Amino acid sequence: MISIVLAVTNDIVTDNRLHKVANTLINNGYKVTIVGRKFADSQNLFNRPYHTRRFKLWFNKTFLFYANYNLRLFAYLLRAQVDIVVANDLDTLLASWLAAKIRRKVLLFDSHELFTEVPELVDRPFIKHIWRLGERILLPGIHIGYTVSRPIQEFYKAKYNKDFTLIRNVGMFRFENNHIPDIDEKVIIYQGAVNKGRGLELMLETLKLLNGIKLWIVGSGDIIEDLKTKARVLNVEEKVVFIGRVPLDKLWKYTSKGDLGFSLEEDLGLNYRYALPNKIFDFIQARIPVIVSDLPEMRSLVEKYQVGIVLKKRTPENLAESIKSILFNEAEREDIARNLELAARDLCWEREEDKIILLYRDASLLVREQNA
Fold first, then answer.
1. What CATH number does domain 3-169+349-371 carry, 3.10.290.10, 3.40.50.2000, 1.10.238.10, 3.40.80.10?
2. Under CATH, what is the fold of the domain 186-346?
């Protein structure tokens, strides 16, 4: 049996993409371990069909965290039973690359985002240069790469002449959501990282213009306390529910109760510009309409399937009108509902995972060649 180690710098609890990939691999006869890190408040990982290993680190911020994690990962990979090492994003690639080279293992790279273009690096040119240098040195040494959106795929091809397979972060197919909406109070839902540039501040400002609507924020991140403060200042705190991080097996309980989802990332560098967030696919599986930013991949998907509105002007007034149009225009809601059903059947992991299976079959052939 071929052994695979998937490395990631989060604590695995809410990583939906890794969970789907790991399950697909296990169902096709591979032995899978996901390696991440453990925080003081990390939740336990129950009922996972794959093995997990999480490191307690001395540092959890700045370059010391990345150095600490990669040293621990490198030491683990040197002694682990593994045939295929999978680095998930650039921050796990150094240790994965070194261990794979030393042990002559097959190295895969799953780029969940364009790491060198994340908003956190926009105003830090020196740090950005270091990450770009690492990418330029390490990326040509991978055997197989795959990523979440076509523009990122094209970026790697143009810059490094590397072919990446497109594996979109679509959700598992769900039968039609039978949730009965509350007539008197509608729920707008956000799920995912609560970080800079996600459009959450704009949504709080928009709540002042809306009645009979609650905002659920499912997730945690760097700006959560700032958002709570802003909600108080704007006097909309009664309209906002901060649910916090939710494990994968509980997330659907919240997603399925929404009346409208949104993904309003700002154009803060290529990473957000090229993004196709998995929450959009989760909303589609929940059969709830979406409002998205006017960015290429999100715009293309929403316009193709007609499952919501692309926000052309990022003002509270324009966003409020878009929300009212979806939530309170019965004819439009019926049209979108039909389109959501078609989109849910097309944009599901069961269709996407065939590409994952073929990709790992190619990796398995490389394993056998190296072991011959």
1. 3.40.50.2000
2. Rossmann fold (3.40.50)
Q: Which helix (H) or strand (E) holds 33?
A: strand 31-37
The whole-number pLDDT of residue 242 equals 96
- Write the pLDDT tens digit of every residue in 144-153: 999 999 999 9
DSSP reduced 3-state for 256: coil
Across the beta sheet with 186-191, the strand order is 240-242, 213-218, 186-191, 260-263, 290-293, 308-311
pLDDT in tens, 14-33: 899 999 999 999 999 999 99
Residue 306 burial by Cβ neighbours in a 10 Å radius (0-12, 13-18, 19+): middle
Which pTM value belongs to this model?
A: 0.91
Instruction: Indicate the length of the chain as a whole number.
Output: 372
Contacts of 178 (CB under 8 A, 6+ apart): none
Pair 150, 166: CB distance under 8 Å: yes
